TrEMBL record:
Name the record gives this protein: Atlastin-like
Superkingdom of the organism of origin: Eukaryota
Family: Belongs to the TRAFAC class dynamin-like GTPase superfamily. GB1/RHD3 GTPase family.
Molecular function GO terms recorded: GTP binding; GTPase activity
Residue intervals passing through the bilayer: 426-442
Pfam families: GBP (PF02263), GBP_C (PF02841)
Keywords linked to the UniProt accession: GTP-binding, Hydrolase, Membrane, Nucleotide-binding, Transmembrane, Transmembrane helix
Domain spans labelled GB1/RHD3-type G: 43-294
Underlying gene: LOC113504945
Position of the signal peptide: none
CDD domains the record matches: GBP
Length: 442
């Protein structure tokens, strides 16, 4: 595959969450299903890397380097990664960034082709890249911004919080909702609600104070998260709680990429126009996020989320964030528990269908109705058992509601299976020689 001009990339950025005229958001379920329900993807645990933060601060630009790295590691399978950044003259392709020609719209974009990677354990995972547009953009309302930021936090396993120049108190305030959520969720789910929060400070100007990279970043973060006397009470709590919400909180300081990147309208992303110090930092940052040993699987309630499960979470969260006001942490928790039960429900239905398909599918011979009923009962019991053995959030009451739903759906499916089986019986009768002769005589 050629790597000359970026055309090696398979896929494109697709907008899965789009604003509507009433300051709500619409989920493009079809597009999302096309990505998450692909046969080779749907059962893989997901790693969701999202970049969020203010508008026009190089988020999409950065993501396109992630694409380069993932392409090298997942598609070309190369072991020598020194060269992953590519040739000096390659234009930067991928998600639309200012240098690109597409219009910028608020919302959430995913890369249409998940990357299949292996963890050091050999476990295969699907890596999804999520780009957010227009957050904190002055033309959007506060709620639009908060919604996009919230969705990307709730749905990612690695949230890269992309900030310009320094981490300000305001930037921490944006995390308030999730911290409240963490507090409410603490006793209701296993594990911490979120995995990795990566502050990424762009155009860090005072490298003599804290050096570029991860070490300087950690020092800055430590200083910032120190709780000081006389501090605003809210802020104090944000700092105390941030660790309780995320399994890992890190910070990385990026240098300015050079004037060609920030000011030249003809800049096409080629490395020869990017400051070498910036390239050096990219070379450290990107493997820290995307090398096999650093991939972080998405977990909710302590459980690994598969691609097909993520669909339920997308639907629930877009719904809950579509109200007039931002939802409360308790409402978000309910939505999480619903989605969690729903994905267990879908999995149980799948099991029922697969078992029945094996026993009495189109290619299986006609079965006596008593035997068919026995098969149905066996498959139904297994499905119910699996539903219950999957640890879920939301307690008995919610689980019972979904188990009832499972019962109804399974019965509906059984009716169709019975019909199909009866049709086989008619076919059998009609194709026996005696009946055939009788029909001819009549
Ligand atoms: P987004 O809105 O955050 O996704 O920003 P884009 O990735 O579209 O980039 C916006 C502009 O910032 C482009 O002109 C980029 O060339 C430029 N840019 C990319 N990275 C950086 C950076 O680290 N610092 C500065 N100052 N500009 C950058
Ligand atoms: Mg962008």
């Amino acid at each position: 595959m050629t790597t000359e001009d970026g055309s090696y990339l398979v896929g494109h950025g697709v907008q899965v969450v789009t604003p509507n005229s009433e300051h709500g958001f619409v989920l493009d379920e079809k597009l999302l299903q096309g990505i998450l329900l692909r046969d080779d993807i749907k059962d893989l645990p997901v790693v969701v890397v999202s970049v969020a933060g203010p508008y026009r601060k190089g988020k999409s630009f950065l993501l396109n380097f992630f694409l380069r790295y993932l392409h090298k590691t997942c598609h070309e399978n190369i072991s020598d990664l020194d060269e992953w950044l590519g040739a000096p003259d390659n234009p930067l392709k991928g998600f639309s960034w200012r240098g690109g020609s597409d219009r910028h719209t608020t919302g959430i974009h995913l890369w249409s082709e998940p990357f299949k990677a292996s963890l050091p354990s050999g476990q295969k995972v699907a890596v999804l890249l999520m780009d957010t547009q227009g957050t904190f953009d002055s033309t959007s309302t506060v709620k639009d911004n908060a919604t996009v930021f919230a969705l990307s936090t709730m749905l990612s396993s690695v949230l890269i919080y992309n900030i310009s120049q320094n981490i300000e108190e305001d930037d921490l305030q944006h995390l308030q909702l999730f911290i409240e959520y963490g507090r409410v969720a603490k006793d209701k789910m296993d594990g911490k609600p979120f995995q990795r929060l990566q502050f990424l400070v762009r155009d860090w100007a005072v490298a003599y104070e804290y050096a570029y990279g991860a070490v300087g970043g950690q020092q800055l973060l430590n200083k910032l998260l120190q709780v000081r006397e006389g501090q605003h009470e809210e802020l104090k709590r944000v700092r105390q709680d941030i660790d309780r919400c995320f399994e890992e909180v890190t910070c990385f300081l990026m240098p300015h990429p050079g004037l060609k990147v920030s000011t030249n309208e003809h800049f096409n992303g080629k490395l020869s126009d990017v400051d070498p110090e910036f390239q050096k930092c990219l070379n450290q940052l990107v493997p820290m996020l995307l090398a096999s040993e650093n991939l972080v699987q998405k977990k909710i309630g302590g459980h690994t989320v598969k691609a097909k499960d993520l669909l339920s979470y997308f639907k629930s969260y877009v719904k809950v964030f579509n109200g007039d006001a931002l939802p409360t942490p308790t409402t978000i928790l309910q939505a999480t528990a619903e989605a969690n039960n729903k994905s267990a429900l879908y999995e149980a239905i799948d099991l029922y269908e697969n078992l029945m398909m094996e026993a009495a599918g189109a290619s299986a011979p006609y079965m006596h109705r008593d035997r068919l009923y026995q098969e149905h009962k066996k498959a139904r019991d297994k499905a119910v058992h699996q539903f219950y053995s999957k640890k879920k959030m939301g307690g008995e009451e919610l689980a019972t509601k979904f188990e009832n739903r499972l019962g109804e759906i399974v019965e509906e499916k059984y009716v169709l299976i019975v019909e199909q089986n009866n049709a086989k019986s008619m076919y059998n009768i009609l194709t026996t020689p005696a009946v055939f002769l009788l029909v001819l005589v009549l």
